[in-house]
Design a protein that fits this description.
The complex is a heteropentamer, with two copies of chain A (368 residues), two copies of chain B (259 residues) and one copy of chain C (285 residues). Chain A is mainly α. Chain A has a single domain (49-365), classed as ABC transporter involved in vitamin B12 uptake, BtuC, CATH 1.10.3470. Chain A is built from 17 helices and four strands. Chain A has helices at 18-23, 26-29, 31-44, 52-77, 85-102, 107-132, 136-159, 168-172, 178-181, 187-195, 214-232, 234-244, 246-251, 256-282, 293-303, 315-331, 342-365, and strands at residues 164-166, 184-185, 212-213, 284-286. Chain A has a two-stranded antiparallel ribbon with strand order 1-4. A two-stranded antiparallel ribbon of chain A has the order 2-3. Chain B contains eight helices and twelve strands. Chain B has helices at residues 44-51, 74-79, 97-101, 119-132, 149-163, 179-194, 206-212, 235-242; strands at 6-15, 18-28, 33-38, 59-64, 67-68, 82-85, 108-109, 116-117, 167-171, 198-202, 215-220, 223-229. Chain C is of the alpha/beta class. In chain C, α8 runs parallel beside α9 (217-225). The longest helix of chain C is centred in the C-terminal third of the chain and has 18 residues, at 236-253. Classes of the chains: A mainly alpha (368), B alpha/beta (259), C alpha/beta (285). Chains C and D meet through α1, β7, α7 and α8 of C and α3, α6, α13 and α15 of D. Bound molecules: adenosine-5'-triphosphate (2 copies) and magnesium ion (2 copies). One adenosine-5'-triphosphate sits between chains B (15, 18, 20, 38, 40-46, 87) and E (146-151, 176). Chains B, E: Residues 6-246 form the ABC transporter domain. Chains B, E: Keywords: ATP-binding, Nucleotide-binding. Chains B, E: GO terms for molecular function: ATP binding; ATP hydrolysis activity.
Chain lengths: 368, 259, 285, 368, 259
């Protein structure tokens, strides 16, 4: 080996500002969009939007979408799609409803069983993709139709003809696990804050915001865990490698089959978590739950910087992507725009937010 | 001669209607460097891919340390102690140098739930191993896709050498390397061979092959032309064999026999 | 006065666009500031979030449709708790009072389907199909259920996607594969009713009865020409118009009617069809 | 160069059967699926499905979908997506309706103007994708929302409040171009065939099938032209190259920007062709036309063997993909299965058809 | 000396915060072979990419036949008569050999609406050009992704030579080639040079460079170390320069000076 021990500092590297370093991370790419959208609504929307209760209001759908979006992002980084997660929300909701209402199981059994059911279907998706070598797009597309149809047939079977299964709220009432999956957290704290006047309350004295909806907590926790896994564990490295180039990853000894199957199980479980939360919250489930959510989850991931071709992206990006999407869809109701213009507005804002991210990133990092 | 680590017997490999290998026999013993030579398209890469678990042979047998064996995946071959530098390098352009280096065999610290990538140590090792090969990386988190051809090849070699256990397979490792890096790689081959590792070395450069090879097997159009031991064959003879026995084009400047 | 309307149907749905026109007209007539909101698809979870968003703005009145009382109940109750007067419309007549709504303007989907079924049975139908372009949308499912009950004979639900060409092909397929089918009920006039009339023409079976929920100019023309039996009108313009007017009056003078207002069902048959075509083409019926 | 002139026949090539050679072509990959689906329905469906009128019945939606699917396939081969084509059907329908009904233009102006409008929007999509470097998925997704919203706003504006614009049939009645875009072709021939009893006729004497719906002819012609372009012209080569590796293609001198923009214009024009045909046929247009068609078009292309990553696929594959999709969606109505099972069935059949293609291809070509 | 076809003056190129080129001056005249040499990562590929229109230089000027010029795309450079073999070859793995060979410059027959690919002629030319380089393709419609490394490289070289007009740029063209193919490529370089084409040849192999080069420019860490004319410099000196002046690892078998 050459005896030299060159100074670590290479003369061929220019100094780099902190801003540049941060913007280079895909994790932070979507922040620009969040800022832009926030500014826009600060200027146009009713001030109620950015009160505490307004924020909870748009964060709730963002959280539900985001849980799916983060899972979809991980799967996309791993190089695959799952188009069946929207239908899985309906299907898992049905299964969960049947367990709690028809069979009367307590949550401690109903939830793990629902999850296991979903994971099994996810694994099946993955196994078919690996076995046949078909694109996951087409395999999970079949899943989209089949699970949606199965939810319909199942609901009719278990309700005696209706496409809506009701009574879940009553069935889980008082279950010790229910607070983990429904309602609001920190209600005591918020009640106290309201009583001392720190946060607004209704005339009745109840705080306007009774607490933080649990899905928001789940959303934040899942985003953190997913980021940790992707960035700080060997498994995360395998996910990136698998999506970047399956062949190269396999040749380098990455267990790509295991990675892919686990990711499919993960998306299915994320879908059933959303199903459980929304079903308990709503107290009912129907055959159209989660309609088009697979699509929105992919949108979320892409807004957050994931490449459709795999191998690149981040969970935090999807986190911000979901917030952008949630803010834009709910935000319009706080403005004076006519509902007819809703879709024009939604499309325009999405494009603006993403273009803005991009311009900022290029400006900062000096890419051509 | 000691018992071979890997012995491949009459390996055939067909891709659809293309016959890439038509009965190749080959072995490598501990502490030797066995060179696999041959014209373009002779089947060298295909052959070492069957050796490292990427392809399953259409026919033929593989013995690993005397036992018949067939690797179902490159991971299995790796776990058995075979490290390979593929001709296409098997790297992910979008990932950083360190992450590519340790792909599939990441160092961890902590235990249980806090078990996580030891990214600092990984970075350090990567910089150090690359420096040994003569490349001073700017930063270990540079994406491999932005490296120069030679830098990229060096990452693949350094990785295989670092993890190499019993057999080290190198498919044209020096093709994109500069003179300094080449001489480092060749001396690395010499070093690991002394440590008892069996090396399979593919090259088109007769001089490189002669410099480190102990035995030379020449493939031609999917078949073995024969194996020679070092000292029994001259550079010129070897070169003739590699060209498939066909005469070479005449050059005004002349290349003095060996290219 | 600020009045917000949250409905489960989309602004680009032919039926709901008429409701929205009613809302807009009421806003103009009363001078109230009205907003119409709806989720992008039939999505009860998102709809409850839209109601929450409306409550946060503390309007002087809130109009909601209630296709799923379980899912929307808590949000509506929150509005009531916050002291916002709520009127329900379209669906939810059975639960409106319970949830604290002042009154309900609309028609029960089930009853409308039942009325249509009875009429079709009376006209001689013996075997029917109910063409549903959005299976799983509870309010549409109820229409088919009501139809089956009122009709009293065998009824098959034909699920389709949102495409007129496909609806036409499917109705044709159903008629061709089972010659006994003599009654077709569509759940939307322009999307299902019109293609169904075409399909019946294409298979050359003049005896088939075609009826459809809601109105569209094209379908009304078919009714007027005798190609279709009737259209079921729930005068949804009223469902948008009346609640807004009621709430505006309530905000100003504290007035409120004493009971529910049934806006339908109203069967538009051959005699009446010609008169409503123009109104339909303007998005009023 | 070496004096040798080796026999052209290489000893390292085994003989290859004709079947193998054919099956290697992506063009023919989807045929297996068509055969399988046909056999299935022959066994389970009412015999009416495969009468002449039954075939026309499922070919009509297949043709409309197929026109979009072939364009989507070409774009996908070129490495991009267009999610806005479904909304473009509604938008172009609206524009066309306004030209014919409100402005009273004859088709000879109305059609080219509609096409030009659509092409312009397609070019804009392409320009934004190229300019910003964003994935086309996200750019055209914005287009999906914006065009859908614009159709609604436009329709309300031009009809005075309704979401349906009618009277197109009356407006184009008697136009010399109308037979090219609506109704049936070869009606004379079919009338004659019916009169001599070769094809069925109603009691009235009119043939049960009055002719071939024009969209089917368009579908076939477009499939042939697209295949010719892809396989036999330089432009086709550029499309494959652009999708296979944009960088390599650019470095080899392929005008990738031009190729991509043209492809976006092509999909937009295909959407407006479908819009024109369906609007004249139905006599009206409304704001929900073409809903989800972008999705079905991509499905069609993928069933037909296109890779989502670009660079591989065929127009003929999309042709058969559309027929499979059309047959499966319409076919179930001819069977005795419970209609609630429709989606389960649709998903299952799609998966089966694609898996079957794959198995056949691997068996025949001897891939591992 | 005749007027240079291309003259590049003080070219700089930055990628974000990475400085790949820091002022390189270079020219090539008709009928000469100008070798560009240097260590891995020295910036050779980056430099020739600015020459062939792939990158826009951050600073510096390009003169083409005396006129200041800047190519906006590789296509423009190609149309001006610059043919390049990139180190990454610029080929589409999923496409056939013929389609890759003619990518962007397809031969057609017929006219007007019947103007179409002349696929037979294209196939013939491809097979013929490949044969000239010493590769007998099995079939011209084989996908490039299934070719061996050397076969693939030969396609890229044959393509550039076939279309080459005024300048031929070859970035490590012989790295994956067998002895026979290498000698063919070198003699091809000698031939086109005699036809008045200017050749830019990048290689790590001193022997190859010495065999065909007329001038030698050495890059080091993004800067020019200097240019030497043939005969003024020995192999050993050149090799020292290429290694960036650092000593080489010692090999037991020894490589006799030049690697
Ligand atoms: N997947 C495949 N399908 C079809 N043919 C293939 C495939 N892989 C390799 N081949 C063919 O098999 C032959 C041997 O290829 P291989 O890559 O083993 O050659 P090689 O000896 O490594 O050549 P080089 O020195 O050029 O790298 C080549 O002619 C190649 O075209
Ligand atoms: N897109 C890029 N982004 C960042 N750095 C880059 C990029 N492209 C090249 N570099 C860096 O610029 C330097 C010069 O690279 P280049 O490919 O020109 O080297 P080279 O002289 O061709 O080396 P080799 O002989 O190994 O091919 C390398 O250190 C590389 O890491
Ligand atoms: Mg090889
Ligand atoms: Mg280079």
């Amino acid at each position: 080996m050459s005896a030299e021990n060159l100074s670590q500092q290479d003369e061929r590297i220019r100094a780099e500002s902190l801003a540049t370093k941060l913007m280079k991370k895909p994790e932070l790419g979507a922040i620009g969009g969040v800022v832009l959208v926030t500014l826009f609504f600060l200027a146009t929307a009713d001030s109620a939007m950015f009160t505490l209760s307004g924020i909870m209001n748009f964060m709730t759908p963002a959280a539900q979408l985001g849980i799916l979006g983060i899972a979809a992002a991980m799967l996309m980084i791993g190089g695959e799609f799952d188009l069946s997660i929207g239908s899985m929300v309906a299907f898992a909701g049905m299964v969960f409803g049947v367990f709690t209402v028809n069979l009367g199981l307590p949550l401690i059994f109903a939830i793990p069983l629902t999850m296991a059911f979903a994971a099994l279907i996810g694994a099946l998706n993955g196994a078919i993709v690996l076995r046949t070598g078909l694109p996951s797009f087409i395999v999970t597309l079949a899943g989209l139709f089949i699970l949606r149809g199965a939810s319909l047939v199942g609901l009719k079977l278990f309700t005696g003809g209706s496409t809506q299964l009701r009574g879940v709220r009553d069935a889980v009432e008082g279950d010790f696990l229910a607070p983990l999956f429904s309602g609001d957290a920190f209600t005591g704290l918020f009640g106290w804050l309201a009583s001392i006047g720190v946060i607004d309350s209704f005339k009745s004295g109840a705080p306007k915001v009774p607490g933080i909806p649990v899905e928001i907590l789940w959303f934040v926790v899942i985003a953190l865990v997913a980021t940790y896994i992707l960035v700080r564990t060997p498994v995360g490295n395998w996910v990136f490698a698998t999506g970047g180039d399956t062949n190269a990853a396999k040749n380098s000894g990455v267990p790509v089959r295991g990675v892919k199957i686990s990711l499919f199980m993960l998306t299915a479980c994320a879908a059933s978590l959303v199903a459980i939360i929304t079903v308990i919250d709503a107290g009912s489930t129907d055959a159209r739950r989660g309609f088009m959510k697979e699509f929105e989850a992919i949108i979320t991931a892409v807004i957050g910087g994931c490449l459709l071709t795999g191998g690149y992206g981040s969970a935090i990006g999807a986190f911000f992507g979901a917030i952008i999407f949630g803010m834009v869809t709910i935000g319009l109701t706080y403005t004076d725009f006519d509902q007819d213009w809703f879709q024009i507005f939604l499309g325009g804002m999405l494009l603006l937010a993403v273009v803005f991210n991009n311009v900022i990133r290029k400006r900062v990092t000096g890419e051509r | 001669m000691t018992r071979p680590i890997i012995h491949m017997e009459s390996i055939k490999k067909h891709f659809g209607n293309v016959i890439a290998l038509n009965g190749v026999t080959f072995d490598v013993t501990p502490g030797e460097c066995h060179c696999l030579l041959g014209d373009n398209g002779a089947g060298k890469s295909t052959f070492i891919k069957t050796m490292s678990g990427v392809h399953k042979p259409t026919a033929g047998e593989i013995f690993f340390e005397g036992k018949p064996l067939s690797f179902d995946s490159p991971r299995e071959a790796m776990e058995a102690g075979i490290a390979t530098v593929f001709q296409d390098l098997a790297m992910i352009p979008l990932m950083s140098v360190t992450r590519n280096f340790f792909m599939g065999r990441e160092p961890t610290k902590g235990r249980g739930l806090t078990k996580r990538l030891d990214i600092d140590r990984a970075n350090e090792i990567t910089m150090e191993e690359m420096r040994k090969m003569g490349i001073n990386l700017r930063a270990p988190d540079q994406a491999v896709g932005t490296l120069s051809g030679g830098e990229r090849q060096t990452v693949a070699i350094a990785r295989a050498v670092y993890f190499g256990a019993k057999v080290l397979i190198l498919d044209e490792p020096t093709s994109a390397l500069g003179v300094r890096q080449t001489s480092n790689v060749l001396s690395t081959i010499a070093r690991v061979r002394e440590q008892g590792v069996g090396v399979v070395f593919i090259s088109h450069n007769v001089r490189h092959a002669m410099a480190v090879g102990d035995r030379f097997t020449v493939l031609n159009r999917g078949q073995t032309l024969g194996t020679a031991v070092k000292g029994e064959i001259t550079s010129a003879e070897l070169q003739d064999l590699m060209a498939g026995g066909q005469e070479l084009a005449q050059l005004e400047g002349s290349l003095g026999g060996t290219i | 006065a600020d009045i917000i309307v949250v409905a489960h149907g989309q602004a680009n749905d032919p039926f709901w666009s008429v409701v929205k026109n009613g809302v807009t007209k009421a806003g103009e007539d009363t001078g109230a500031n009205v907003e119409f909101r709806s989720p992008e698809t039939f999505d009860m979870v998102q709809m409850s979030q839209l109601i929450d968003a409306a409550v946060n703005q503390e309007p002087d009145g809130l109009v909601v449709s209630i296709p799923d009382a379980d899912a929307l109940g808590p949000s509506i109750q929150r509005a009531v708790e916050a002291g916002i007067p709520v009127i329900s419309m379209n669906s939810g007549s059975d639960v409106a009072k319970e949830l604290g709504a002042l009154l309900h303007v609309g028609q029960s989907e089930f009853d409308a389907g039942k009325a249509a079924g009875e009429k079709l049975a009376e006209m001689g139908g013996t075997k029917g199909i109910c063409v549903n372009q959005e299976v799983g949308n509870v309010s549409l499912d109820l229409r088919c259920d009501g139809f089956a009950e009122g009709f009293g004979q065998e009824v098959t639900v034909i699920p389709t996607m949102n495409d007129p060409t496909e609806v036409q092909s499917k109705v044709r397929a159903a008629l061709e594969s089972d010659p006994d089918v003599d009654t077709v009920l569509g759940l939307g006039a322009s999307l299902v009713g019109e293609p169904a009339v075409e399909a019946v023409k294409a298979v050359g079976r003049e005896d088939v009865l075609v009826a459809s929920f809601d109105l569209s100019a094209g379908f009304l023309q078919s009714v007027a020409d005798g190609d279709a039996a009737f259209a079921i009108d729930q005068q949804q313009f009223l469902q948008g118009y009346l609640p807004v007017v009621f709430l505006a009056l309530n905000a100003e003078y504290g007035l409120v009617p004493g009971g529910d207002v049934p806006s339908g069902p109203n069967l538009v048959t051959q005699e009446a069809a010609a008169q409503v075509i123009d109104l339909s083409a303007q998005g009023i019926r």
